[in-house]
Amino acid sequence: MPRIIDVVEAPNQGANELVVRVPEVGSGDFRLGSQVIVRESQNAVFYRDGKSLDMFGPGRHTITTANLPLISSVMSFFTGGNNVFTAEVYFVNMREFTDLKWGTPQPISLRDSELGFARVRGFGQYTIQIAEPKRFVDQIVGTQGLYRTSQIEDYLRNTIISNITDVLGENMTSIFDLPRLVDELGAAVRAKATPAFAAMGIALKQLMVVSITPTDETAKAIDERASMGAIGNMDAYMKFKAAQAMGDAANNPAGGGAAAGVGLGAGMGVGAGMASMIMQSMQTPSQPAAAPAASATATPSVMTLEEAAAYLKVSTADVEAAINAGDLKARKIGSQYRIAKEAIDAFLAS
Question: E strands along 65-113, which residues?
Fold first, then answer.
């Protein structure tokens, strides 16, 4: 004889339990007149044969044909009018679930305008609340076959990860831009994921992207990219490295015999490979050396006041004062002075 469940309740549903199933395994036997006790934060959904039937809100209810019309029709069809029927009851937690975590179990591979290719991981948190208990039971319990909280959270987490992969793939240009776009990414993922959650009877209250971090391989590529930027002049850097390599080879403490030959060969190999680069770097500064000589021969034999001041390395006022004092011979043509180089040399010699 089946065991009749006369009182249907879930008094020990924890704050973090999305759903409690009564009975825990199989279907339960209920009858008209059984009591259904629903706590303030719960809704009770009767479920049978892959479909949610009637629902009770908070309060104490007695099962009758008046308040469970769908179950009454099931009873007439399956039980021949008897007042005993089989079903499952899912107590859905209507509280707001905060600080739920999501994270990418595997790196997301993306194109990158700077690195060419990048792999990243994402982490964050989200807040949900069950908005439509019957739809939630149909979609999660009926369609997915899930009712344990850990299973449901895994399913919701995968939905978020699928959407953040889409958002990153559609909007990311470079991993270097992501730190300033974290808030925008969170808003975009929430907007994209909200319809999927609503289809499951769940309101996605909040979604945050806490961090987007590169994998070890991508981080290494970023470090190399930063090092190249810090070097700046790659040609000068290569010359420096060549000279350093030759110095290391010259100081090779290898012993005699074969070891000495290896050390000598390494030094000669580095020298032969880098010789032209080193010679170029050593010879390059010698080319501008002729500039001072050219400058010296370019001194005019007759100078203006400004040229004389530059030649003497004084101000024009000092040159004009020397002229007015009669110490420096010059000729004034109109408003301009003309001074012979010989006069300046004689002035300096006096």
Answer: 84-93, 96-103, 108-112
